[in-house]
Amino acid sequence: MVAANDLLYKKGEHPDHTIVIKYVPSVGDSKRAIDEYYSEIFMNGRQTFSIYNVCEDSLLATPLMIDLVIMAELFSRIRIRKKSSQADYSKFHPVLSILSYMLKAPMTPPGTPVVNSLAKQRAAVENILRACVGLQPNHDMGLEHRLLR
């Protein structure tokens, strides 16, 4: 993960923190989390947001699991080939890296770069689905509106 994120980490650099998740039998299915976000503000000031969250873990995970199964099944049916090619259709690699949009730590086939950008991951899913119904990819550059005429 770190090696694929060269914008955040220099070569040989690693995160400076640890995340600890422990199971506490007395809270059952409740997920309890304390997240803190720290930032520097105007005139060397500091700002910290602290969020305390309690929710039922399985109720959060169930819709995600259903979506993962549906999308994995859908992507297992897709066959692709170049328009001008007479070659056989190809299918997606069994490691469906396209599903990384819904997972914390995306897996990729060997030699494939890891994409750690939620927006890029979502755009990839959206554009593959658009291609399946014959629509052009969505790029949101809007160059036709940004050029000097």
The run of helices and strands is: EEHEEHH
Q: Tell me, what's the shape? A: extended
| Beta-strand content estimate | 15-25%
Mean pLDDT: 85
- Kindly report how far apart the N and C termini lie: 44 Å
Cα radius of gyration in angstroms = 21 Å
Structural class category = alpha+beta
| Strand order within the widest beta sheet | 1-2
The total of helices stands at: 3
Detail the poorly predicted runs.
Answer: none
Tell me the major beta sheet. Answer: 2 strands, antiparallel
Helix content: 25-40%
Number of DSSP E strands: 4
Characterization of this structure:
With 149 residues, the protein is an alpha+beta fold. The chain is built from three helices and four strands. The protein has helices at 57-77, 118-132, 143-146; strands at residues 30-41, 45-56, 79-80, 90-91. The strands form two sheets. It has a two-stranded antiparallel sheet with strand order 1-2. A hairpin with a 3-residue loop joins β1 (30-41) and β2. The chain is extended.
